[in-house]
Structures are given as structure tokens and as C-alpha cells.
Design goal:
The complex is a heterodimer of chains A (about 300) and B (about 400). In chain A, the strands form four sheets. A four-stranded parallel beta sheet of chain A has the order 2-1-3-4. A four-stranded parallel beta sheet of chain A has the order 10-9-11-12, sandwiched between helices. Chain A contains nine helices and twelve strands. Chain A is α/β, with parallel strands linked by helices. Helices cover about 45% and strands about 15% of the residues of chain A. Chain B is α+β, with helices and mostly antiparallel strands and about 400 residues long. Chain B is about 50% helix and about 20% strand. In chain B, strands 1, 3, 4, 5, 6, 7, 8, 9, 13, 16 and 17 form an eleven-stranded mixed beta sheet that branches. The longest helix of chain B is centred in the last third of the chain and has 44 residues. Chain B is elongated and about 95 Å long. The chains are: A alpha/beta (about 300), B alpha+beta (about 400).
Chain lengths: ~300, ~400
């Protein structure tokens, strides 16, 4: 009798566990597969979709999504996605060399195309993690203007709603929460911009155009990498720039090497990190990185 | 009775040529109208099915029929519109837009630029190899792969657009990524490329080669073109998009202004379809929206009218041929007077002679009927392919 009961219990447990695994698999399968081209969009998609979306950022950690190129395997995975969220503004330079379903794509910045900033006569630099690259064409870090980031989140939300219209109310509620958070940051930056309106600033890399425009920062950019000592000619050019544009702070995408920071310090220029957060941060999320950026910018002399 | 047929069979076998001519004539008289209707009905079925699956088409104003045939069957060439028309459809929120660019043919097969959505929409899946992934790739319809004897991994050069193309758009060497499963639709005949690859072939997109000292090569618009040294040292042959040069490829201008031949619009519901059609009522000068099913109905009505005319003609021809065969049979009786007399001398009565002749006639009709059935079965089996090759493509 005990043996029979034991066998029955085991069978029941096996059945239950099997069912649970299947249910979990179904749950995973039921998720909306969203591919994104950078971390801000991944964050927005996660906030909007919550547990109902499976967000995938195919760019390997440590690689700048702006200069990443998908391999055939990544393209194949993207083709199978439900939604492909693109930053637009010429961010995905690989887009016109690959085949992706048009109906699955959402260009999140298409709504403010007229507000794109065009970069003329950009210099091609052969240093940095991506090797030779240039920032010619359209400035692409659109989300650093947090009002634009809100619009991008909205475009993404509309794309998600189009795929799952039955969850429209949930997605819109999540979107309004996200937009409220972005609005708080935007207001803080506007105040900060007002306070630093006449203060010259230097950017280490030409990625802060939208930030400078939205928040009224008096910013000029060089094209330096935080972990590569710029050549002598660059330092000479910096000296010339400092005569016309006497900045006391250079903002960096990441902490510059101590040698570069020290050499800048000798010229009376301190360093502050303002991470565009294009790639998933090791700690925190988009909001916490932006809050840290605001704090760093506030503390600049 | 068996003896009558035996003698008749031997007689017909002895006069093979004459028998063959009579059987052929009888078979053709019987089969032509039936075969014609088979093919017309199959053509009607195929065209109607394809049109029914394509709710709305947007293209350049002009011949609505050319637009329909170009977008659905990759046959006629219609004037180009631009990609912005597809964007406009999407922007309405009433329909999904599938742009198509069908302008060129490669070795007799239509070269069709599409987006990946087209494959989902038409239910096309890859049977061998992989789906399009990179610029410069193509996937072949099953019939196109057979006709061109190509498989995944092979190359396919596109033709230079014109011998007099002084701009020097060289042919592009496409890489066959995959072969599609057979669908028994015009898609089987097509060579599909991504829209962006189509624009490269058009010369809108190109790559800049690095300026290296390559004495064996000559710069072309898509990188370095291999030199066909066997022919002429200055004649560039194929250019190819490779992993090494793909990053140099780019397009000039706004993609919205790039050419396409049509947009398949897939309205979300009936109301959306009506609203979308209303948008193009006042587009007098450039763009039109058409319903393929309605468009083809007129064409098919005309085809069936022609079919009815053919029926009449075939009835007349059949009647005349029957009379001619009757005459041949009557004349052959005169020629066979000696043979009939011999039969009489052998003891055959008049009735017996008549039975022998009737047996010959029955056998001729039976053989012709059998041949008709075989031919009709073959036509029925291959009607789809015959229609696609002969009528639609």
C-alpha cells in the first residue's frame, strides 16, 4: 500500500513539475520579443513592457552600440523578433546593409526628425575601441535631451501596443510612469543648464550635442578617448581652444585615465563623467546613471 | 465480334501512317476546346487567388492593369514611385505597407526587390539555405533555382542595365542565400533581393574602395571590379559585395526618395481600406490606388470572351475536320473496293463487311479517346505550370 501511494505521489509530482515547466515555457514564449539597438531603449522597453517583454540588446558588453555591426547570427535573431526598436538619427549605421522586416521596426526618433542636429566636417579618428570612426552626419545621442528621450519612449510604447493591443492600458500606464521620471531629470537638468548658462564647458567626445542644445550648455567638443593619451597636436589644439573658450571642466563618457586627468588639471581643466549610457551599466540603470551625471555636472567648477 | 475487332485492329496496324493521322486529327478536335478551358480556368483560379490575397495596390498613375500585373506577377513594367508612398500608408495607421520593386530580369527570371515582410505575407519559407540577411544576397523561388541551376552559396550576376549606360553601372554579383519552398505561385519564378540591394543595382547605393595600389584591379562604383584579363584589360566584369567591402556601402539621399514600383497595402479592416482608398481619390496627378481583384476581373472577362470566340472557331474547325474525315473515310471505301470484293468472295456478307468497317471506326474512336484522356490528364496536372510560364509570367 505504501509502495503504491509512493508511486502515485511520485507520478503526481512528476506531472506537476512537468506542467510547471511547460507553463513557464509558455510564459516565456508568450513574451513580446523586443530587440533594441542601445541601452536607453532597452531600459524604456523594460519599463514599458515589464515582465511581458523579453528585451534583447545584441551588442556585446564593452562595445559601443553606435559602432557595433551585427553578424549574420544577430541578424537572424533580430529577424525573428516581434519588434526591433531603433534609435534612428543615423545611430544604426548597419541598418542599410542588412535585411530586417520593415513592419517590425520602430524608429523611435522619427517623430522629431526635424530636430536632428547635423554635424558638418567631422574629423575621422583612428583611435578608440571601435578603431577608426567619425561622427560625421547626424548627431545620434538623441536621448541625452531627456524631452526627446520621453518621445522615444512613447514611440517605443506605440510599437509595443501595436503588437499587443490587448495590453494597451498597462503599457500606457507604465509609459506615463517612465515619462514622469524622465521629466523630473529633464527639469533638474534645465535648472542646472540655467545655472551654468555662461560657463564654458569642454566635451571629450562629440556626443553631447542634444544635451548642450536642450539645456543651454556652452559646450565645445574635442575627439578624445578616456583611456588613450591624445597626441601632442591635440594638446596644442586644446590650448588654442582654451584661449577662445576658457573652460574649466571637460565632461567625459567614462573616467579618463589618471595621466590625462592630471595633464588637464595642469591646464586648469578638471574632469567630470557624463555617461551617455548607450551600453548597459555595470551597476544601476538609466535613471541612476543620469542622476549621477547630473550630480557630476553640478559639482563642476 | 472479337474476330471483327481482331481483323480491324490488324488492318489499322498494317496502315500505321494513315491510322496515326486519323487518330491525331480526332484527338485534336476533341482535346483543343477542353484543354483551352482547362487552362483558362486554371489561369482564372491563379490570378483570382493572387489578386484576392492582395487587397490594395498603390502605384504610379497610368495603366492600373500594368500596375497589378507588375506587383502580382512581376510581368509588366510600371513606372516607379518612391518609398515615401509606403511610409505614407504606414503613417495613416490604417494599413501595413509592403513595398515592391520589380523592374529587371536576370536570365529570364524577374528580379524582385522586397522587404522581409513580403515573405511572411505570402507565406514563403526557405527550403534550402537561409533567408536574406546582408546586402548583396538573394533568395530564389523554387522554379527560378531549377531554371538557373543554382543552390545556396552560388553566385548570380545581374545584367548591366544597358549597353549604352555611360554611367557605368556594372553588374552586381549576387550571392544566393537560399532557395524558397515551392508555392505554385508566381513567387516560384522570382529572384528576391532586399530593396536596398535593388537600389545598389540601380546605382543609388555604392561602396568606395580604399585607394590601394592594385595593378590587377580597377576601381568601380561598388569597390574594385575584377578585371577580365582574358578579354580586355580595361573591361570590368562583376562587382561583388563581400564581408571586406560591405561597410563601405552607403546610399546618398533620403531613402524616402528611392524608387519602388508599387506598395501592397494591407488594411487592418474594411473601414481602414475605405479610408485609405479615399486618400487617393484626389491624387489626380501622380499616384493611384487599385483593387487588384476588380482590376483583374475585367482582364479575365476579356480572356473568357476570347475563349468563347475560340470555342466558336474550334466548333467550326471541328465540324469541317469531321466532314473532311468523313470524306476521307468515304473515299477510302472506294479505294478499298477490291479489298471489300475479296471479303465477299471469301464468304463475307454485306453486314459482315459493314461490321468490319464499323469495328475500324470504333477502334479509331477508342484510341483517340484514350489519347485524349492521357493528354488531358497531363494538361490537368501541369496546367498550373503551363499557365504560370505561358500566360502569367
Amino acid at each position: 500500500m505504501k509502495l503504491v501511494r509512493g508511486l502515485l505521489s511520485a507520478a503526481w509530482l512528476a506531472l506537476i513539475s512537468g506542467f510547471s515547466c511547460e507553463a513557464l515555457a509558455d510564459l516565456e514564449d508568450g513574451k513580446l520579443k523586443v530587440f533594441v539597438s542601445n541601452y536607453p531603449l532597452a531600459y524604456f522597453a523594460e519599463r514599458i513592457g515589464g515582465h511581458r517583454v523579453a528585451v534583447s540588446l545584441p551588442v556585446p558588453a564593452g562595445e559601443d552600440p553606435a559602432f557595433w555591426r551585427p553578424d549574420p547570427e544577430a541578424i537572424s535573431r533580430m529577424q525573428k523578433a516581434d519588434l526591433i526598436a531603433l534609435n534612428g538619427a543615423d545611430y544604426e549605421k548597419w541598418l542599410n546593409r542588412v535585411s530586417l522586416p520593415r513592419l517590425k521596426q520602430v524608429d523611435t526618433s522619427a517623430g522629431f526628425k526635424a530636430a536632428y542636429i547635423r554635424i558638418e566636417n567631422a574629423v575621422t579618428h583612428s583611435h578608440g575601441p571601435g578603431g577608426e570612426h567619425s561622427h560625421d552626419g547626424i548627431a545620434f545621442t538623441t536621448w541625452l535631451d531627456l524631452a526627446q528621450a520621453g518621445k522615444q519612449a512613447e514611440a517605443l510604447a506605440l510599437g509595443v501596443i501595436r503588437k499587443r493591443p490587448e495590453l494597451k492600458a498597462v503599457f500606457l500606464e507604465n509609459l506615463s510612469g517612465l515619462q514622469a521620471d524622465l521629466k523630473v531629470l529633464d527639469d533638474e537638468l534645465l535648472k542646472l543648464g540655467e545655472a551654468k548658462k555662461n560657463q564654458p564647458l569642454l566635451g571629450s567626445h562629440p556626443v553631447y550635442q542634444y544635451l548642450a542644445r536642450r539645456y543651454g550648455l556652452n559646450l565645445k567638443s574635442v575627439h578624445w578617448e578616456p583611456n588613450e593619451m591624445p597626441p601632442a597636436a591635440e594638446w596644442v589644439a586644446l590650448d588654442e581652444t582654451l584661449i577662445r573658450h576658457p573652460a574649466r571642466t571637460m565632461i567625459w563618457e567614462a573616467q579618463p585615465s589618471p595621466e590625462i586627468a592630471a595633464r588637464l588639471k595642469e591646464k586648469g581643466v578638471s574632469s567630470a563623467v557624463l555617461d551617455p549610457c548607450a551600453q548597459r551599466p555595470e551597476q544601476g540603470d538609466f535613471l541612476s546613471v543620469m542622476q549621477a551625471n547630473i550630480a557630476n555636472l553640478e559639482s563642476t567648477p | 465480334m472479337r474476330n471483327d475487332f481482331y481483323l480491324a485492329w490488324r488492318y489499322l496496324g498494317f496502315h500505321k501512317t494513315r491510322t496515326l493521322i486519323i487518330v491525331t486529327c480526332l484527338s485534336l478536335i476533341a482535346i483543343l476546346p477542353v484543354a483551352l478551358h482547362f487552362l483558362l480556368n486554371e489561369g482564372n483560379r491563379q490570378m483570382t487567388t493572387r489578386a484576392a490575397a492582395t487587397p490594395l495596390l498603390i502605384g504610379a498613375r497610368g495603366s492600373a492593369l500594368d500596375l497589378t500585373l507588375n506587383a502580382l506577377f512581376f510581368g509588366a513594367v510600371s513606372p516607379s514611385i518612391t518609398l515615401v508612398e509606403a511610409d505614407k500608408v504606414t503613417a495613416t495607421g490604417w494599413a501595413d505597407a509592403l513595398p515592391i520593386y520589380s523592374r529587371l530580369r536576370v536570365l529570364g527570371q524577374p528580379l524582385v526587390g522586397v522587404t522581409l515582410d513580403y515573405f511572411d505575407y505570402r507565406g514563403l519559407r526557405v527550403a534550402q539555405g537561409q533567408m536574406l540577411a546582408m546586402l548583396g544576397e538573394c533568395v530564389l523561388g523554387a522554379a527560378a533555382a531549377e531554371a538557373l541551376k543554382l543552390k545556396p552559396g552560388d553566385s548570380l550576376p545581374t545584367p548591366p542595365e544597358s549597353l549604352f549606360d555611360l554611367a557605368g553601372n556594372y553588374p552586381l554579383k549576387l550571392r544566393v542565400a537560399g532557395v524558397l519552398a515551392r508555392t505554385h505561385t508566381p513567387d516560384d519564378q522570382a529572384i528576391f533581393i532586399d530593396l536596398q540591394t535593388a537600389w545598389v543595382i540601380d546605382g543609388i547605393g555604392h561602396g568606395h574602395a580604399e585607394q590601394k595600389n592594385l595593378p590587377e584591379r580597377s576601381a568601380g562604383p561598388f569597390g574594385f571590379a575584377e578585371i577580365n584579363r582574358a578579354a580586355d584589360g580595361k573591361l570590368p566584369t562583376y562587382t561583388e559585395i563581400t564581408a571586406d567591402n560591405i561597410d563601405s556601402f552607403h546610399f546618398h539621399g533620403d531613402p524616402g526618395g528611392f524608387p519602388i514600383s508599387a506598395v501592397i497595402a494591407l488594411p487592418h479592416d474594411r473601414k481602414s481600406a475605405t479610408l485609405l482608398r479615399g486618400r487617393y481619390v484626389d491624387q489626380g496627378e501622380k499616384i493611384q490606388i487599385v483593387q487588384p481583384q476588380e482590376n483583374l476581373r475585367g482582364l479575365l472577362d476579356n480572356i473568357f470572351r476570347v475563349g468563347a470566340l475560340f470555342d466558336g472557331l474550334l466548333a467550326v474547325v471541328g465540324g469541317v475536320t469531321s466532314l473532311a474525315l468523313g470524306l476521307v473515310f468515304a473515299l477510302s471505301l472506294r479505294l478499298r473496293q477490291g479489298e471489300i470484293r475479296t471479303n465477299t468472295l471469301l464468304g463475307c456478307g454485306r453486314l459482315m463487311v459493314a461490321r468490319l468497317l464499323a469495328a475500324e471506326l470504333v477502334l479509331l474512336l477508342l484510341v483517340s479517346g484514350g489519347l485524349c484522356l492521357v493528354l488531358l490528364e497531363a494538361i490537368r496536372r501541369y496546367a498550373g505550370d503551363i499557365v504560370r510560364y505561358a500566360l502569367i509570367s
